[in-house]
Amino acid sequence: MVESYLSEEFHVPSKHPSEEALRKWRKAVSLVKNHRRRFRHVADLDNRVIHQDRFSKIKENLRVGFLTMRAAIRFMDGMPCIKSELVMQIIIQKIQRFPTSTIIQIKLASMVQNYSMLILRGLGGVNGVAEAVEVNIDEGVKSTELTTRQEAYGVNKYTEKPSKSFFMFVWDALHDLTLIILIVCAVVSIGVGLATEGFPDGIYDGLGILLSILLVVTVIAVNDYRQSLQFRDLDKDKKKIICHVTRDGFRKKVFIYDLVVGDVVHLSIGDQVPADGIFISGYSLLIDESSLTGESEAVHIDEKKPFLLGGTKVQDGSAKMLVAAVGMRTKWGKLMETLSGEGETETPLQVKLNGVATIIGKIGLMFAVLTFVVLTVRLLVEKTTRNEFSSWTSSDALTMLDYFATAVTIIVVAVPEGLPLAVTLSLAFAMKKLMDDKALVRHLSACETMGSSTCICTDKTGTLTTNHMVVDKIWASGKTKGAKEPSELPENVSTTLFQCIFECTGSEVVKDANGQTSVLGTPTESAIVEYGLLLGGDFGTVRSEIKLLKMEPFNSKKKIMSVITALPGGQIRAFCKGASEIVLEMCDKIIDDSGEPVQMSKEKAKFITNVINDFADNALRTLCLAYIDLHEFDMQKDIPGRGYTLIAVVGIKDPLRPGVKKAVETCLAAGISVRMVTGDNINTARAIAKECGILTESGVAIEGPDFRNRSSEEQSELASRIQVMARSSPTDKLELVNRLRHLSEVVAVTGDETNDAPALHESDIGFAMGIAGTEVAKEQADVIVMDDDFATIVKVAKWGRAVYLNIQKFVQFQLTVNIVALMINFVLACITGSAPLTAVQLLWVNLIMDTLDALALATEPPKYGLMNRPPVKQTESFITTMWRNIIGQIVYQMAVLFVLNFAGKPILNLQGDNATAILNTFIFNTFVFCQVFNEVNSRDIDKINIFCGMLSSWIFIAVMVSTVGFQIIIVEFLGTFASTVPLDWEMWLLSIAIGFVGMPITVVLKCIPVEKSAVKQHHDGYEILPAGLEHV
């Protein structure tokens, strides 16, 4: 019944929840002590709507403005030269009235945003702008000028909502309605006490409550403030985007926040344009401005349309850009300002525990009201029996106030505000630890969802392999040779090979400040360029002799890269490089043993295919290089796709990452299937998959086109058995993800390219690569793997499971304390007429339960054996076998406390005037120590060995020591305020012993068999062991 209520009212999907679902659970939360604190870490939907409306209006204004400006540009281009020159002269005269810094700050930003070619021409084009901002385009900005430029032209950051101070968290904690009521009660108690008992005796009860509230508020504020600092640091890490610039004459990597006006930025496919700028040079640059204007059609950028806007994405091509405006002087900066401070969408576990807290809170409120009613009725009955009903004294008023304070305090304890906040605490802790493990979690829900993942669709290159590529073998001019063997190619073949290697590439050979030569570019292209240098080729000479006319960069859809060049003699030649079988189909000639081009016969094509397969079977990545000579070429047309001459077949070695095989084994043992989805040749993919343990005898290896061309029914049937998908396109990956999700799999996907964004978006958890990944992929991802290592993904899965388990442990502990505190106070109030635990004591118990133990149990690191159990289903009941432990502990604790309350004096041999005070103190002390040892019991719900890894959890140890230490202080030194008296050492030992007995009782409870969910069978046929050493 409880689970069905939670599923109906408190359920949101882990990704892309609707606003209706988000509002539905908020309405269902009917009892909240502190609205500001409870909902601090969930999205402010009303504020989000306002910001999104503002964002949409700004985007619409930008879209209309840009369309108008482009129309105006076309109109101005058609104006007579005299009028255009006249306009430019007027603009130049106006500009000359301003100081240089003002020109840069106002005019450059306006020029880019208004697409003003007239101003650009008036300034002398991009070179004139570079001169105006005092930068050499070839050398870039000097590092010594960065501070000066930031002061003059601004910083590349947008205005963000300021972070909250510690005192704001204190103020938030004081908004707890029950604490406010208790403060009022305490003040009234002090006032009445002073009037009846005088100073200082009359202030002790009220002052005790105020001091307890001060302690509770301080601890809560400190805990929340530390948590906010963690989130602030993580938020900074999320926004760290790296871009390539030329500075001091060398190409460097810098964070976009360090960019300044005058920087020369290098852009490539998938990059985010980091600031407003002007096109310097480049090829086939296609910009997606939809994030800024909402226009879906990409814009071609070249010398005629040279303006680039910050926040847009590079869809295709490459270029160099001169930064003209940064930060809040860009439209993107102003847009980002409207989106700051919305809050992150809540996770499913946060929502579910809000539901649990609501149910318990309603029960607690009912018991609190009943307790107050029972105590009040008893008082009225007693006064009636003594014929004092019409006579009321200040003492009676204090008694009624005490009853009311006790009832309110029961609500304090009963409404578990710490439950949903514990999820946030646990996730924040896990995110911080994962950051140390090279995983940047962008969305809270991803860490939680990864604990339920059943499948990982992973790339090969850079994730399973090192991405440190080197050419291992090459076939050229009829011979296959190792990369380290001396080249014996004819001179004309060597020349053509060097031309293809050094021209048909996006890599660059550069020297650093120390004079060391290095190759910048993708690992595949860098490997080929490095091989060309190894053969004795001169990158600079080839580049200077040959003029590059047009480039079509490599992308995952075409799987080839092509260029058009003009050779020194004027000959037009196209070069092509890419996936071996695709380039081979484009060739109708081949360079033979003598170094001359000959026709590609069927026998020769079959021979080359065998060479490719032989390379692939040895786990080498294969590429073909080819060329075609052209008589003429129309630059408006595409580069030819047929008639090429094959130069060489290259086999590139990319070894497996150390530990990846073990990581795959860990996934399989944890019930997580691993599927390789790669663009490589199927033979290469098979070899790598077998080497790392992904491909089994019964597994299916298939090519993307084959999967794509099958019917929907065949795709669904095949999806669960696929272990390798080779030559796949981003569309194939997306289709596989959707098929698996329809089969109720919780799918994690890795991606690094721009075209991977849809699959990352649609998956349950998207992983983007931090090194090889584009900014477009990272923006759509839930987690960024900073070291691109598959083993890091496994760590995220482990921490995801740890978060879920830690919250279960905290729930088990808190429910036990809640129910025992409620029942003891209610039952004894009904029987004896007084609650055994006072308001101050209950506030201390609440502090232990809601804050300290949340910190202890919700931040425990993953335990050994956590990855030897199947994933937790997202639909599975959250409160599982813990009911066995909760009921057992409740029965034991209530039995002990009832016995002590009714028969404690004779059992403990207590006599004298202070016997009642000693007994009440002993009951309070015993109750606290029962919770201390129950906290240790809660470290594991099923296993008997609860001490495993305890010493490695320093937070848990610190909380335990602090709890015991402060309990000693309360009992021994703060009796006046806490209604306690000092206990002798025998009483202390007995309290500890009674609490300790709960541990062997829990051992017995864990031996009671309970029904467990069926174990999932892996795709390779074996099952997880249902028991083992990890279950001891």
Automatic annotation (TrEMBL):
The chain crosses the membrane at residues 177-196, 202-222, 359-381, 401-430, 815-837, 882-903, 954-975, 987-1008. It is a multi-pass membrane protein. GO terms for cellular component: plasma membrane. Belongs to the cation transport ATPase (P-type) (TC 3.A.3) family. Type IIB subfamily. It comes from the Eukaryota. Catalyzes the hydrolysis of ATP coupled with the transport of calcium. This is Calcium-transporting ATPase. Keywords: ATP-binding, Calcium, Calcium transport, Calmodulin-binding, Ion transport, Magnesium, Membrane, Metal-binding, Nucleotide-binding, Translocase, Transmembrane, Transmembrane helix, Transport. It comes from Deinandra increscens subsp. villosa.
